[in-house]
Amino acid sequence: GVDCTPPSIHISCVGNYTEFTDHYEFIGYPAGSLRGNILDIATYLSMVINNGELNGTQFIQPSSRAIMIGENEGHGFFWQHKTISTESDEVELIGHRGWTFGVTTSMHFDPLTNVGLIFLMNVDLPAYKNKVYNDLVARLYQEAIQISQSAQVKK
């Protein structure tokens, strides 16, 4: 058989069926097989925003990052470009969104301002063009820009 047991979770593989035990009991958990908390995700996004570097260590080469996020393509490897409408203009964000039953996660950043957005929600918003989701992203982006501008003024 195939050993598909990551650390701290027991998985049984039988044919094409995988059963998770000792953790969240939904067969698709975690849907993308990447688990972390908000600080883990923020650290990762900071590294991506900073051209693959974090705290003086280059984790991803800038050329690999450009391919990963689809810097010149409109989409990358699991990264999408999303245009949101704010009160004053339209902004292109780069990021990834995922959802499954009862859960929605989102990680996006603005490559012009380097402002990042992350949210983890206990609600599923499956349609990518879902108005609630788009409005939430736009509102969070506007709030983040205001906080960023306020921090710049204080320096």
Strand content: 25-35%
Total number of helical segments? 3
The secondary structure category is alpha+beta
Number of strands: 8
The N- and C-terminal alpha carbons lie at a distance of 59 Å
* CA radius of gyration: 18 Å
> How would you spell out the order of helices and strands?
EEHEEHEEEEH
Spatially, the strands of the biggest sheet line up as 5-6-7-8
Largest sheet: 4 strands, antiparallel
User: Helical percent range?
Assistant: 25-40%
Low-pLDDT segments, ≥5 res: 1-23
Query: Which word captures the global form?
Result: globular
Summed over residues and divided by their number, the pLDDT gives a mean of 77
Q: What topology does this entry show?
A:
Blueprint: E1 10-14, E2 17-21, H1 38-49, E3 53-54, E4 57-58, H2 62-69, E5 80-85, E6 90-100, E7 103-110, E8 115-121, H3 131-154
Antiparallel strand pairs: 1-2, 3-4, 5-6, 6-7, 7-8
